[in-house]
């Protein structure tokens, strides 16, 4: 059983399109995250949800809209895709609490043409 | 906000060589400190962690010691293997109720036979 699963693994699309990435965790964790990794491997947090509530929003363009229907799911919808959105997007989860490690999904490679 | 400075990569070593990857951080308070590893095509996974000053985290032959006075958490391994080839990320974890890990650019390690 995969602990944190993301779909799709690869996403190729045209500029201006709208796309979604889905994430599910079966670990019973309270907190979920979206991170973006650029081509130079720099990994930056985008959002964090705790039990369906947004708790971190790191000045991400409002074309990006996360949605958490329940605490096991955190989806990412992106409107009007731009070339600069091309990256690998990672979902992660953790139990609530300082000092806890994150469990990562295997990533979604988004390519905007 | 929190930040991490890691040794610039790529780092290329021969098998059985000694490895050091330097990491310094800035963070509010006393964060937990983590090293994560990303193997090709995969998500990040925890390598080791330390939760307070002078703690040493260790796993798979890797070690790092939490140095509060120098705000550092350098990663070391006495004898690297080809299978250690990966990208390594140092990350402080802090923020209380807005807990998050702050990653940097990562350091690509290539170990040749």
Explain what you see.
The complex is a heterodimer of chains A (113) and B (113). Chain A is mainly beta and 113 residues long. In chain A, 0% of the residues lie in helices and 56% in strands. In chain A, the strands form 2 sheets. In chain A, strands 2, 4, 5, 6, 9, 10 and 11 form a 7-stranded mixed sheet that branches. In chain A, β5 (43-50) and β6 form a beta hairpin. In chain B, strands 2, 5, 6, 10, 11 and 12 form a 6-stranded mixed sheet that branches. In chain B, strands 3-9-8-7 form a 4-stranded antiparallel sheet, with no helix packed on it. Chain B has a two-stranded antiparallel ribbon with strand order 1-4. Chain B has strands at residues 3-6, 11-14, 19-21, 23-26, 32-38, 44-50, 56-59, 62-65, 75-77, 86-94, 100-101, 107-112. Chain B has 113 residues and is mainly β. The radius of gyration of chain B is 14 Å and the shape is globular. Chain B starts with a strand and ends with a strand. The model of chain B has no long low-confidence stretch (mean pLDDT 92). The chains are: A mainly beta (113), B mainly beta (113). The A-B interface holds A 4, 31, 33, 35, 40-45, 48, 50, 55-56, 90, 92, 94, 96-102, 104-107 and B 32, 34, 36, 38, 41-46, 49, 51, 87, 89, 93-106, 108.
């Amino acid at each position: 059983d995969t602990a944190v699963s993301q779909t799709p693994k690869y996403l190729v699309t045209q500029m201006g399109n709208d796309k979604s990435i889905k994430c599910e965790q079966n670990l019973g964790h309270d907190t979920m995250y979206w991170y973006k990794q650029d081509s130079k491997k720099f990994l930056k947090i985008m959002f964090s949800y705790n039990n369906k509530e947004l708790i971190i929003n790191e000045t991400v363009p409002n074309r990006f809209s996360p949605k958490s229907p329940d605490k096991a799911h955190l989806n990412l919808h992106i409107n009007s895709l731009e070339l600069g959105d091309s990256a690998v997007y990672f979902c992660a989860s953790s139990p609530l609490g300082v000092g806890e490690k994150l469990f990562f999904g295997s990533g979604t490679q988004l390519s905007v043409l | 906000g929190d930040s991490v400075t890691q040794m610039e990569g790529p780092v290329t070593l021969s098998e059985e060589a000694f490895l050091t990857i330097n990491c310094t951080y800035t963070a509010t308070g006393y964060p937990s400190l983590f090293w994560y590893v990303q193997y090709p095509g995969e998500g990040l996974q925890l390598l080791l962690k330390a939760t307070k000053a002078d703690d040493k985290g260790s796993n798979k032959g890797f070690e790092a010691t939490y140095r509060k006075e120098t705000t550092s958490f350098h990663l070391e391994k006495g004898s690297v293997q080809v299978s250690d080839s990966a990208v390594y990320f140092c990350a402080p974890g802090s923020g209380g109720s807005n807990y998050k890990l702050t990653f940097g650019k990562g350091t690509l390690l290539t170990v040749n036979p």
